[in-house]
Amino acid sequence: MSTTPPALTGLVAAVLADDGTAEWTKAVPRRVAALLDVMPAPVRAAVRGAAVAIDAYAVARTGRRLSALGAEEREHVMTSLAAHPALLPLLDAVKVPLLLAAGTERMLHHGPTPAGSAPEHPPLDGTSSGARPSGRTPLGAIHPGRTSSGATPSGPTPSARTPRGGTPPGPTSSGAKPPGPTPSGRAAHSGPTPPGPTSSMSAPEDPPLDCTPSPDWPARSTADAVVVGSGAGGAMAARTLAAAGMRVVVVEEGEHHSTASFGRRAPLDRFMSLYRDGGATVAVGNPPVVLPVGRAVGGTTVVNSGTCYRTPEHVVARWLGHHGFAAAEGFAAHLDEVERALRVAPQPLDVLGANGRLALAGARELGWTAAPLRRNAPGCRGSCQCVVGCPTGAKQSVQLSVLPEACAAGARIVTGARVRRILTDRDGPAGPRAAGVLARRPDGSELEILSPLVVVAAGALHTPPLLRRSGLGGHPRLGRNLSVHPAISVAGRFGHPVTAWQGVLQSVGVEHLRADGILIEATAAPPGMSSFVPPGTGRELRQELEQTERLATLGAMIADRPSGRVLGRGRPLPRYDLAARDAGRLLRAQRAMGRLLFAAGAEEVLTGVPRAPRARTPAQLEAVLDTVSARHLHVSAFHPTGTVAAGADPEWSPADPEGRLRGVHGVLIADGSVLPSCPEVNPQLSIMAAALAVTRRLVTRAG
């Protein structure tokens, strides 16, 4: 059990202006300590060091530690601290984990705002074609069943799902019998379901998976193909190879989590178990970039937003023409197949929630093009918990969609096994050849899976270190070419409740600046889990938390130049230096999001920048942002790609045009690292289509 250092206890009381009267604050220090325990040592040391430094500041000013001060004295100390710009990084270091813990505790004690309890406010618009209609429609006149262009949403409906066929060999991951009705049999509903601390929504039984915990897997086994990683790329590779008749074993470091387990656990508890290092992967740079990635059967698809953009045609053309990524030929057909597997369709308006509908309303007022996003979530109830595991099973993460098909075709999954290195046979006449993998169980013991084909799908951050550990990292460009899709967020405060976490987590895409590589998306999250960091400390921050229900949040990503790299052989050490052009686009995106929120009726825009935290008019927004450098922004990223890029130039591309690692036979790259450049949109479909392309071409050659 984690112990709570006194410095942390006093800091939580000071940052949250806790006078001891609120029940929900009492467990926050313990939750922060538990979260720090699962974070990597450098991050843990930085946060704890910041807590000690702030405590020392209190001692220097008052002669006593924060935990020994009264509420008024703590407030004076924090106000003084916040007045020094040079000390603001100390506060930033502690606010993010503290807000995660505080959000969970507030939800546990207060629960969600009951559906329908919010007072009436102006209805919100459901159409935005980029041009204003001739007759002014009341702000928010929703046209059910229509997209922002006025068309009826196309694509499969929840009832169109084809039942999964076949039963995988061996037990399911939970030992349960094969499930009953698929999600197509769920009852119809209307409007978003409010999220609770532990959801009361009934979860369906998951499709069966052939999962075996690593302690129960034999120390030595064989396969026709080993797939390292079970996320977007690994799942698609396993499905393709198993369908071709290969004996496939997927090796996954994380554990399998059932949909039912998500409904039984508080959001922060799920966060700590579903994200690698407690979500605290950080790319070193100026500014540093937070890069959270999933670790579970299903990989990051378990914790992503469910947004499914097709790879833009100009990006595919660049991959083919400029980079020579031959596997991208016929990419549209691969995208079609992936969309069918994930049951992608436009998000219906009735569960967008107020956050998404405000984005549509603001876009309409500005004449900007916006629309509900296409997602892999048929039957979504708007629980807004995509980032900590969908508690209803509506989001078709690959462990609910693609991996069951792979297992039905004979694939097996080993869980809780970290691949230490790829085994190679270096004595053959044709040069080094893959011979399997060596993996480590949680107790430190090892297992070998021998195979002539190894498909590496550990993700763009972890694939390069694995190749280096395996003696296969000799290409000078391996680990370079890292794109991350840098993102920032902005919030708007409204004069009525928005309760952004009731509705779809990522609901609306605003494409006004898409040609400039800027994609704005209406994105919310359970309290405390948003990438938006509210301003202030002490009473100012407490007031912000008490008014969270009135905030709408937007996020923007930019199609960045590949200006990063991944170092290291064990734990990856990402380095990312924001290019000057990309820094300018982040600031432009911030202005655009502020304009959109004001157009939607926001009374105030919160920039997320400590040095210029708020604006009450569009003109004031422009003025305060003129004082901001991109280096002051809170930048996060969720889409690392490109670190083992495929292409025709052997000096530039560590992988060949068909995704095969150069310099060794039998090693195929099938994750985001194989993409030659940033896909410019949420990358799940791009990664899965690329994995499908490289594995299908391999099967075709072998056949």
Q: How many angstroms does the end-to-end distance come to?
A: 55 Å
Q: Tell me the number of helical segments per DSSP (H or I, 4 or more residues long).
A: 17
CATH class of the domain at 218-275 and 301-340 and 396-477 and 644-700: Alpha Beta
Derived from helix and strand composition plus strand pairing, the structural class reads alpha/beta
The overall strand count is 24
CATH fold annotation of the domain at 218-275 and 301-340 and 396-477 and 644-700: FAD/NAD(P)-binding domain
Please compute the radius of gyration using only Cα atoms.
Answer: 25 Å
Quaternary: single chain
Can you tell me the residue ranges where pLDDT is under 50 for at least 5 consecutive residues?
Answer: 112-190, 194-200
Secondary-structure map:
Elements: H1 6-15, H2 28-37, H3 41-62, H4 71-82, H5 88-110, E1 211-213, E2 220-222, E3 225-228, H6 232-243, E4 248-252, H7 259-264, H8 267-274, E5 282-283, E6 289-290, H9 313-323, H10 331-342, E7 345-346, H11 353-366, E8 370-372, E9 374-375, H12 402-408, E10 412-415, E11 418-425, E12 433-440, E13 446-450, E14 454-456, H13 463-469, E15 487-493, E16 506-510, E17 518-523, H14 539-546, E18 551-558, E19 564-567, E20 573-576, H15 580-599, E21 604-606, E22 614-615, H16 618-625, E23 635-636, E24 667-669, H17 684-702
Parallel strand pairs: 1-10, 2-13, 3-4, 3-14, 4-10, 6-23, 14-24
Antiparallel strand pairs: 5-6, 7-9, 8-16, 11-12, 12-13, 15-18, 15-21, 16-17, 17-18, 19-20, 21-22
Helix pairs in contact: 1-3, 2-5, 3-4, 3-5, 6-12, 6-17, 10-17, 11-15, 15-16
